[in-house]
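Teaching note: in complex prediction, the entire set of molecules is handled at once rather than each chain in isolation. The prompt given to students was simply: 'Predict the structure of this complex.' The entities are:
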Amino acid sequence: MLQRLTVVGVGLLGGSVAKAARAEGLAREVIGVGRDLARLDGARQDGTLDRITTDLADGVRGADLVVLAGPVATIERQLDAVAAAAGGETVVTDVGSTKAGIVAAAARVARTRPFAFVGSHPMAGSEKSGYADARADLFRGATVVVTPAETTEVRVVKSVSAFWESLGARLVTMDAAAHDRAVAAISHLPHLVACALVDAVLRFEPAALGLAARGFRDTTRIAAGDPVMWRDVFLANRDAILGALDALDAAVAELRGEIEGRDGAALESALARIAVARRSVS
Amino acid sequence: MLQRLTVVGVGLLGGSVAKAARAEGLAREVIGVGRDLARLDGARQDGTLDRITTDLADGVRGADLVVLAGPVATIERQLDAVAAAAGGETVVTDVGSTKAGIVAAAARVARTRPFAFVGSHPMAGSEKSGYADARADLFRGATVVVTPAETTEVRVVKSVSAFWESLGARLVTMDAAAHDRAVAAISHLPHLVACALVDAVLRFEPAALGLAARGFRDTTRIAAGDPVMWRDVFLANRDAILGALDALDAAVAELRGEIEGRDGAALESALARIAVARRSVS
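The expected output is the structure of the full assembly:
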């Protein structure tokens, strides 16, 4: 039981953290920090937050746990002020979907003052991004990656891991660089590909959108996601994404070559190999 | 009310046609034609089919409506025998997902004997392909494209259109070439992209499959589809697909260039334009 949980950025993920902590009775007091009191007020009125503030230091001070849930670039900018207000006792984590930049920034801060930080990435969410879609069960069954650095204290890793587990998540621990490469492949590349696919239809045959069936809708659903959030993700994880894009180009080129050369045997064998791999993903 | 409906190929689509016609009371007798009596027998035992046969001519003869529901290459091969058995009165359609090859083959047949054929493409289905997943409501709310040629008689178009509409489908009429270009964009390219995306993860970071969340699963769901069916689709619609792949390459290259050059403004504007287009698809 936490005395005080502070969520900075009360959108889909931050709002879901607050709702889930409330639903599980994990915190006596839940504080929400945001830029706009009027937008935060709904979460106070519905009982998810006990107190709201636009003052980051005021919201963070005295909390047992702080969850930074703004965009990746915002989290990086907030770390120094959060560390200053939090002191060494308050445990701090974040929900940013790329970790190397945030973890490096946190390590820089920790060289100047005590900072009990470990990065997290809950692999949950959707094409929605606002508090209106926040859900108490968003993390139930989801994977959360926790990314300790060499200098992270074990007690910090344990307390953040326990928090996510008490929201129903499955924990995976890896370092920030390995995390960023893995999510480039399994999360950022799919988003980029979904966007490119929508754009390809617009370039090739826009009228075909009128024939969209379930296949197209599922394959491109995430392309409706928030452009600002995804711009930040793509730039924050640039190097790993460029590597994943090389792999995509090679995969497309192989299939194209088999179609172009009417090589039915090679095409069937590639499609069969891929279908087996896809079916292995639950 | 048809006296006799014959479905050739009782898999997901053919089985669903038979089940839907049965559920709507559209045919007094429903006959199933397949290569393997043992595999057809389930559909007879569950009451979907009245009679089953492996003899194409026997199954087709005397039907009011024949629906060819095998793979595209099989349909093309069957047309001459079907026309010979059907005569000029029996109306024939198919469910193949590419139409130029089938419509051209049907036109060749029709120059030698009477053949009341028009192509159809129900934009329904899933990554499944067998009778076990056939459903009486598969076509409810689905789009069915009907592709008359210059020489197709209006009565044939009308009777096939009325059949699909009575199964709950929304009808779109276009010529076979326009259809093939549209489905290259909205159906075949998404399938190819989903396959390439799975393959890219296997090439770049196979361990990342363990972190797959909803975004990856939705984006790649169709990559689990039947390799033989999709091999045939890709080869049958080769030229339009190669054109759509050029558009994909251009779309990927634009996004890659913006990420590589750290051009946040251009990247955000591209993602915003794409998100708006995606949200316009219901």
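Point out the following to students. The mean pLDDT of chain A is 95. Residues 176-204 of chain A form the longest helix (29 residues).
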